[in-house]
Amino acid sequence: MFVQVIEGQLTDVAQAHAAMDRWMAELAPEASGWLGTTAGVTADGRFIALARFESAEAARHNSESPAQDKWWHEFSSLLSGGTTFRDTEDVTLDLVGDPDAAGFVQIIRGRATDPDRVRALMAQHPERWESFRPDLLGSVFVLSDDGGFTSTFYFTSEAEAREGERKEAPEDLKAEVDELNTLDAVPPEYFDLSTPWLYSPAST
To answer: Which domain of life does the UniProt lineage start with (predicted)?
Structure first.
């Protein structure tokens, strides 16, 4: 799997959402290899999107489409201060439910001092986490060569996610979280998407 993470500051949320919906209606049917997109805007206007493709080749083929180029030119005019792109094929997908049914999405972006250890910890005890946090529908973890990571968590609702945050974790799971925190090279940045924009081929 290939994931492209796109970030920027939006000048008009409504227009951006309408443009994403238009992409879904007009371009998605021709986007071969596209697996889905998670996007949204934080309360302070920061836009973030994760576009998932079967491969880097499929993503590149899509980006070379004249229709895609025209759409992106129009969409990027709604972003101020430049746009950041991060591409990677180092993707860990963990789904226990339907992420397209999520009512709240939290994206965490940061940098790890030991990417291999982070990857190992993220893969531990999925059944324990499923039992402890039934509000969590799944996650997508992407890692760049320089240790930069983006973790996307899909929740049933924001209220249930906040309630889950307040729960006391069992000792083994708490130890994993504590170790993950020690591996942060920089303070992580949080993108809370209270109204996530979720797109997939199934919804075309």
So the answer is: Bacteria
CATH of domain 2-89+195-203: 3.30.70.100
CATH fold of 91-193 reads: Alpha-Beta Plaits (3.30.70)
In order, the DSSP letters of 114-178 are -HHHHHHHHTS-HHHHHHH-TTEEEEEEEE-TTSEEEEEEEES-HHHHHHHHTSPPPHHHHHHHH
The residue behind tokens 């324990």 is 128
- 182 Cβ neighbours under 8 A, 6+ residues apart: none
Q: 């990417």: which residue's tokens?
A: 115
The DSSP output letter for 101 is G
For residue range 158-202, list pLDDT tens digits in order. Answer: 999 999 999 998 998 899 999 999 999 999 999 999 999 999 998
